[in-house]
Amino acid sequence: xxxxxxxxxxxxxxxxxxxxxxxxxxxxxxxxxxxxxxxxxxxxxxxxxxxxxxxxxxxxxxxxxxxxxxxxxxxxxxxxxxxxxxxxxxxxxxxxxxxxxxxxxxxxxxxxxxxxxxxxxxxxxxxxxxxxxxxxxxxxxxxxxxxxxxxxxxxxxxxxxxxxxxxxxxxxxxxxxxxxxxxxxxxxxxxxxxxxxxxxxxxxxxxxxxxxxxxxxxxxxxxxxxxxxxxxxxxxxxxxxxxxxxxxxxxxxxxxxxxxxxxxxxxxxxxxxxxxxxxxxxxxxxxxxxxxxxxxxxxxxxxxxxxxxxxxxxxxxxxxxxxxxxxxxxxxxxxxxxxxxxxxxxxxxxxxxxxxxxxxxxxxxxxxxxxxxxxxxxxxxxxxxxxxxxxxxxxxxxxxxxxxxxxxxxxxxxxxxxxxxxxxxxxxxxxxxxxxxxxxxxxxxxxxxxxxxxxxxxxxxxxxxxxxxxxxxxxxxxxxxxxxxxxxxxxxxxxxxxxxxxxxxxxxxxxxxxxxxxxxxxxxxxxxxxxxxxxxxxxxxxxxxxxxxxxxxxxxxxxxxxxxxxxxxxxxxxxxxxxxxxxxxxxxxxxxxxxxxxxxxxxxxxxxxxxxxxxxxxxxxxxxxxxxxxxxxxxxxxxxxxxxxxxxxxxxxxxxxxxxxxxxxxxxxxxxxxxxxxxxxxxxxxxxxxxxxxxxxxxxxxxxxxxxxxxxxxxxxxxxxxxxxxxxxxxxxxxxxxxxxxxxxxxxxxxxxxxxxxxxxxxxxxxxxxxxxxx
Amino acid sequence: xxxxxxxxxxxxxxxxxxxxxxxxxxxxxxxxxxxxxxxxxxxxxxxxxxxxxxxxxxxxxxxxxxxxxxxxxxxxxxxxxxxxxxxxxxxxxxxxxxxxxxxxxxxxxxxxxxxxxxxx
Lengths: 775, 120
Ligand SMILES: Cc1ncc(C[n+]2csc(CCOP(=O)(O)OP(=O)(O)O)c2C)c(N)n1
Fold this sequence. Notes:
The complex is a heterodimer of chains A (about 775) and B (about 120).
Chain A: H1 9-29, H2 32-43, H3 52-58, H4 62-73, H5 82-92, H6 101-127, H7 138-143, H8 151-177, H9 198-208, E1 213-216, H10 223-232, E2 239-242, H11 246-260, E3 265-268, H12 270-286, E4 292-297, H13 307-311, H14 319-322, E5 327-329, H15 334-349, E6 356-361, H16 362-366, H17 390-402, E7 406-410, H18 417-430, E8 433-436, H19 460-464, E9 467-471, H20 477-480, E10 481-482, E11 491-492, E12 499-503, E13 525-527, H21 531-545, H22 548-576, H23 587-598, E14 603-605, H24 615-619, H25 640-652, E15 657-663, H26 664-667, H27 673-679, E16 684-689, H28 695-707, H29 728-734, E17 738-743, H30 746-761, E18 765-770
Parallel strand pairs in A: 1-2, 1-3, 3-4, 4-6, 5-6, 7-8, 7-9, 9-12, 12-13, 14-15, 15-16, 16-18, 17-18
Antiparallel strand pairs in A: 10-11
Helix pairs in contact in A: 1-2, 1-5, 1-6, 1-8, 2-5, 3-4, 4-6, 6-8, 9-10, 9-15, 11-12, 11-25, 17-21, 18-21, 23-30, 25-27
Chain B: H1 2-13, H2 33-42, H3 46-49, H4 68-76, H5 91-103, H6 114-117
The complex binds thiamine diphosphate.
Thiamine diphosphate binds near residues 635, 637, 665 and 666 of chain A.
């Protein structure tokens, strides 16, 4: 039977102190073994005590014992679990079964300091325990020689002071509400006084920003914010998503934004956590996705005690991601946190929307909000994105209307569903060819004006164009220039006299180190403005300028483009038959088997939009804003699996069916996201593109082997993911997914999809491991 | 002559029948389909052309009416982004690969695939 817990602070501390007196006896008599049993009961531990794990991990390592003790000593009275931890520090820390007597001696010494810091220093500081200098710090204590105090006397004092601590902490809350001082001894309900941690206030600020979720991998530098989120905020708005890697946390936030249109918060653990998160932050940056990161940091060197605290702290932790974030700050007070958090959100959401970071001091999180503190949560006033200069917009409209062959080149033109609607309207008014790099759901995939058949835009239209309007297109060079890949100079595709205009919010914000801004854009006019905000004005102007004559020219152009689209579609249809019955399964077959079963549902492709060689884009009707979420921005592998989970989470509340076409190499960077999806009951259907290789890289190494006139057949070394083959269905099953596979016969695919969809519709994630052709 | 003999010998060893006309460029040989299939994968062709030569990043080879001669010279010294194999693959092996590619049956007519006909 588990011993009964003792819940009253004073009682527990005094009994712990009493217990420790026995330790002295043990030391003198070398009778640790016998007494250990007694102490176990005194501390009232249950076997399921979480903190027990700390001890189990650390008791083999003396240094670690110290570290754990230090950790314990850092727990202030404002922690709700202070008593629980104290139980551990007194009993489990000191009297594990195989602790030798020297360790006990040092541990007891540490225990003294624990009591001194926790009971006298911290309690006196915040609760003004009579007789103890409230302002005295540990350094002063050391200098004053308090450490040489007689141990027994000290512990006796601790025991008697414990009662005072309990009552005075109750008094603090009483002070806040009523002047009455409850009679602890006579009126013991076991209730602990309310505490308002700094992190509670921080959470109020975070809540005020409307975050639904915070994605996080745990770490002590933000433990207070973590605890406030689950206990003070009751884990709602934001709800904590348990992530198994910081990179996954940020990429989940990345995918979520592209469906939900608002950022997810991320908590990250100081140096090492942010280092892990960095690549995903870079992807969000390149993809113009706002993510709001809160990174714990142990700023004050005087307060770092453990090896962990020390090595996990940086003077400027955000430095590692500063080159690819929009703004960051390290607030020094609670008020400062409030302003900076609201400011960070506002900056992140102002186009170009980008990630931001706050470095949040661990101590500031744990520091209680002083009674009567005048804290205020600033009002969030969204910044309206800038519309292009009206005279310039009129000029562009004139050029477009009078053009013989205008082309709209778009990368992230549609920031929201409205952007998609505007772009369709503009393209149809002009019957202009649309060259879409499908980084966002800018334009319907099967629209006759769409020049992208899923394998990338047909750039022959660029050479035909006399006017090109680029909308939020940082990599216009990839559209305008040909070649230049193998070191040969690039050559412009533009025909002489062609005019190029650009509207991009990126002209308002440029960093220098990372080269995602591309080559210098040689354009005739650049509007530093948000494309989506500018489109309504441009549309109005175009409408005004289209006369009867122009309308005829425009309609003829539209008919030509529609016919070309139809021919392309027919070629694609034939191409899809190649290897139709092959095993491994062709990616075209997967796309079509799937489409047949989802086309009448409310679906959303949550993987990279160009997954499976772009086959879905060739046949599926991407029409709504949530039909796909674009790509990583950074072309970083390892983005797609976590982003799909984030996007599927966002889709869940709308009851949408999330489809993830998952390349095997990409999944294995962060396979733990499968667990996160199952744990948080995120329904989604994942179909593996299991070509058992990093196939893109196989081809890269083959190309260079050819260039070096060496053996091309050896290029699967270091690029193939085989021997052993990964069993993705077992992997997924082990993390709580419904899964089938490996599926090698294409005829089995349709029925398997049907079974998996039935599972997904019940709210579970399901995975089918399709063994596929290389591309 | 020595080379032709060696090739013929290799062909015999691999179970390939290579009709060699003295003094003329190699004609379309009768290669070993099974070995061709194996070598098509082992030489790394599949990463761009898929397991049955249906294409991908590279061109479709199945149902592509090129002569053995053109095939051999393209593999050795291709244009574009395909890596040049030079003399990495002996001609007899290329004959097997060629035979394998030629053996791939035609794809079904799109009209016979209901899933494709559902696409409007
Ligand atoms: C973080 C990162 N590491 C490495 C690369 C280089 N890289 C580009 S494509 C690729 C292979 C991706 O494999 P998989 O996801 O299985 O897709 P496949 O190429 O097989 O279609 C790699 C490793 C990258 N882009 N990003």
